[in-house]
Amino acid sequence: MFVTMIAAKIRAYLRYRETVRELSRLSDRELDDLGLSRAEIAFVARSHAA
User: Fold this and answer.
1) How far apart (Å, rounded) are the C-alpha atoms in residues 15 and 45?
2) Cα distance between residue 35 and residue 3, in whole Å
3) In the predicted model, what is the mean pLDDT of residues 13-19?
4) What is the tens place of the pLDDT at every residue in 2-13?
5) Residue 45 pLDDT > 90, yes or no?
């Protein structure tokens, strides 16, 4: 039970980091096309990982 919870937290963190990495690679124009700004990357990544 405890190990499953820790594994789920680790997977969520890895999804968060991957989303941040992928969005950070985009140019400002590409982010704008998606309706995002650089300031919103962490929020979007957190929402995606949850």
Assistant:
1) 8
2) 38
3) 96
4) 999 999 999 999
5) yes
Q: Could you write out the DSSP letters of every residue in 3-48?
A: HHHHHHHHHHHHHHHHHHHHHHHS-HHHHHHTT--GGGHHHHHHHH
Distance CA 24, CA 4 (A): 30
Half-sphere exposure of 33 (CA within 13 A, CB side): 6
Q: DSSP assignment, residue 49? A: H
> Do the beta carbons of residue 41 and residue 12 sit within 8 Å?
no
Q: Which residues of 20-31 are buried (b: 16+ CB within 10 A; e: fewer)?
A: beebeeeeeeeb
Q: Which uninterrupted H or E stretch holds 2? A: helix 2-25
